[in-house]
């Protein structure tokens, strides 16, 4: 995957601002940008509007908590990590950066496969 522009930086100007699209949510928390999969790896619940506090996102369905710096499951009914992605402030826009540990297929296909396997 190459570098992908995801949203205008103006959309994430203040803490708590968020943008969701193409299966990814980007949020600004404590001045830092975080990008993570829009669906919880446990049950597929949307995390687009999930509470984010001090670098942790909480799934509204089952209460699973994930650290946004690396996706580690901190509590809840799952130990499956939340896919998190590197982001960069590129002047007027926010870029989603490739990671070596990310899968080689499309982000949407990978996220769908993760949700299906978590439901089994």
> What is the average of the pLDDT values?
85
Number of helices: 1
Strand order of the largest sheet: 1-10-9-4-3-2
How many beta-strand runs?
A: 10
Low-confidence stretches: 100-104
The largest β sheet comes out as: 6 strands, antiparallel
Structure class: mainly beta
Give your account of this protein's structure.
By secondary structure, the chain is mainly beta. It has a single domain, classed as Rieske [2Fe-2S] iron-sulphur domain (Rieske Iron-sulfur Protein). 11% of the residues lie in helices and 37% in strands. It is built from 1 helix and 10 strands. The chain has a 6-stranded antiparallel beta sheet with strand order 1-10-9-4-3-2, with no helix packed on it. A 4-stranded antiparallel beta sheet has the order 5-6-7-8, with no helix packed on it. The radius of gyration is 13 Å and the shape is globular. About 4% of the residues have low confidence.
Architecture blueprint of SSEs:
Blueprint lengths: L3 E5 L9 E4 L2 E6 L2 E6 L14 E2 L2 E3 L6 E3 L5 E3 L8 E7 L2 E5 L9 H13 L1
Antiparallel strand pairs: 1-10, 2-3, 3-4, 4-9, 5-6, 6-7, 7-8, 9-10
Keywords for this structure?
six-stranded antiparallel β-sheet; 120 residues; globular; Rieske Iron-sulfur Protein; single chain; four-stranded antiparallel β-sheet; mainly beta; 1 helix; 11% helix
Q: TL;DR of this structure?
A:
By secondary structure, the protein is mainly beta. The chain has 1 helix and 10 strands.
